[in-house]
Amino acid sequence: MHAFTYSLGMLATDDNSIAARETGLAADEEVTLPFADNQRTSEWIVVLAAAYVDYRLSYGAGQWQIHIPLDAFEVAERELKAYEEERDT
Q1: What's the domain range around 62?
Q2: Whole-angstrom Cα distance, residue 38 to residue 82?
Q3: What average pLDDT does the chain have?
Q4: What are phi and psi of 60, to 5 degrees?
Q5: What tens digit of pLDDT does each residue of 66-87 get?
Q6: Total domains present in the chain
Q7: Coil, strand or helix at 80
Q8: How many CB atoms lie within 10 A of CB 63?
Q9: Residue 55 is assigned to a structural domain of this protein
């Protein structure tokens, strides 16, 4: 069984997000999930959408990143952990 690869310890506040400023979110109001490959990113956005969690995608330096409003992060974390645990069984 694999551990939740993209754990909370790897999460970072998106301090430099131009898109966050453009959408009216302050950088400290958004959490950026760590880089995942395209397949995992696609799976995660389906999980988030199914749980009605707002998210934003950005693309830079050849990779996709998922940004989640800080107030939705607890739900997002719970849903993604449950998904990863189920995926690994």
Answers
A1: 22-70
A2: 20
A3: 76
A4: -165, 150
A5: 999 999 999 999 999 999 999 8
A6: 1
A7: helix
A8: 12
A9: yes
